[in-house]
Design a protein that fits this description.
Blueprint: E1 2-6, H1 10-20, E2 25-29, H2 32-41, E3 46-49, E4 52-53, E5 56-57, H3 62-66, E6 73-76, H4 81-90, E7 94-95, H5 104-113
Parallel strand pairs: 1-2, 1-3, 3-6, 6-7
Antiparallel strand pairs: 4-5
Length: 117
């Protein structure tokens, strides 16, 4: 799968990316602005989206994603429930808290299987 991971915790990205996402085509950005740039020019199957980012909240990116010609699934990946709940309320398709990131493959598969085209 082609994944965009919007996450600003570099240590978590390095460790979890190698352990759980190594088999995917993975692009990693740390800001909403950079995510918008990539989403405007590339197609992704899914966006893994943190809530607390350096230039705003992850919820700000979801309306942009929903207007793309090819809409990827969005998985909330915050470390705290409030962030994941906010992303879910904004339209995320699934939730995978950082503390349960070992389940990301299953959550991705489930969300993509249930994606509306």
């Amino acid at each position: 799968m082609r994944l965009l991971w919007v996450e600003n915790h570099t240590v978590f990205v390095r460790i979890a990316g190698k352990q759980f996402l190594a088999g995917h085509d993975l692009s990693i950005v740390s800001t909403i602005a950079h995510a918008r740039e990539l989403l405007a020019h590339h197609t992704f199957d899914a966006v893994l989206l943190d809530y607390d980012l350096d230039d705003g909240k992850g919820t700000e990116l979801i309306p942009f994603i929903r207007q793309l010609a090819t809409i990827p699934v969005v998985i909330a990946t915050s470390s705290h429930d409030d962030g994941n709940n906010a992303l879910n309320a904004a339209g995320a398709d699934g939730i995978c808290p950082k503390g349960k990131f070992s389940q990301i493959a299953t959550i991705l598969e489930s969300c993509i299987a249930h994606q509306k085209f």
